[in-house]
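Researcher: We're reviewing a set of sequences before deciding which ones to prioritize for further study. For each one, I'd like a predicted 3D structure that I can look through quickly. This is non-specific serine/threonine protein kinase. If possible, include the structure in token form so it fits the rest of the review sheet.
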Amino acid sequence: MKIIALQVSFLVFLSTLSFTSAASCPMDLNYVTRIPWNSSVCRDFHPLNSTPKAEISKQNCCVALLSVFGIGLAEHLKETTLFQLPDLPTSNTCLRDFQAKLDSLSLPNNVASLCFDPMQFVITPDLCANIQTTRDWVAKLGESTALDQGCRADLSDLTACDTCLRAGTEVHSRLVSIDGNSSHGTDCFDFIVLYAAGIVNEFGPEKEQGSRPRLRPNTGSIWFKLHDLEKATDNFSKKNFIGRGGFGFVFKGVLPDGTVVAVKRILESEFQGDEEFCNEVEIISNLKHRNLVPLRGCCMIDDDEIGINDHEKGRKNIILDVAKGLAYLHYGVKPAIYHRDIKATNILLDADMRARVSDFGLAKQSREGQSHLTTRVAGTHGYLAPEYALYGQLTEKSDVYSFGVVVLEIMCGRKALDLSSSSSPRAF
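Model: Here's the predicted structure for non-specific serine/threonine protein kinase, in token form for your review sheet.
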């Protein structure tokens, strides 16, 4: 009998091992490396071994990681109705996958294990008012709460965000009262955040199909979902094709509110990762001048980087307006910004027939105290200054040279580079 019992125990043990190894994470964590978030707070995160786990979890790195991991949990709630993960093996697998994404961002290879206990993401009734599913939530709080009204809108708007915060505070008080255990206050707060992001908010948590929806991270620009841009441009159809710039293709699009935009899909990006792209977006979004076409928004999906500008009708040059726009880029902002692709097709007319400089896909910001930048040559053949084309030395004079070519085109009524004939290209 003892032998039989031992055999049964051994089989149970093997089945447990098999179950553990077979566990897979139900969350798609690809967004971790795609969305803009401040990963720098975890670059040098090495708490002392003697630091209590509770204290470590309050540090900036762990708070940031919890927010990022929470996006996946909110999506999981939306898809499964579960507020947490179903079991410990699944939680372990998800945290291992999460760490793999953090590894690709060059973060410490143990940062997830330092911040999190796998059990904290396993569903149990002993977290907040015995709530485990959205059905339990409705049973405890009713079909509608203050969250359903206060957190539905675009929360990048500060007024809407404040309204949602007040609604969350109200619901939190109710949950803690129902639970009767004040020590569960943090868990109840986490559930409120997950419910607001995954169930209530009309833009939803982060998805692979879209970049950060309607979020303006210190930029003033909207982060669009890819499927919204596909709809606006009729899936980037040929009939909406405007032209090709020095960095990619440009399509005409119409947003749901009727606004006509130019959607620019970058094909040959110089940006070293998502963080650099977000930094450039922030720089360009802060440019405000009557002779510059403003950046309306952007989208970032895996290797795709897309910029959205207002679409200006017509392509005729008004020299003085262009000169003012360039002067602002070179001397009106610090550090200066070099456009790198000044040409006739990047100078557009607005409704008042005022010229604006557009297409900042190749723009570079100068460095304080340096007379020039040395960078990979980019731009349009025929408009490049010789010292930039030959040696990659970029200054404001590079833009001035390109601007001079545009002026010469106007004066002569000819293109800078004539490619119309079958013979060799002809230049001025």
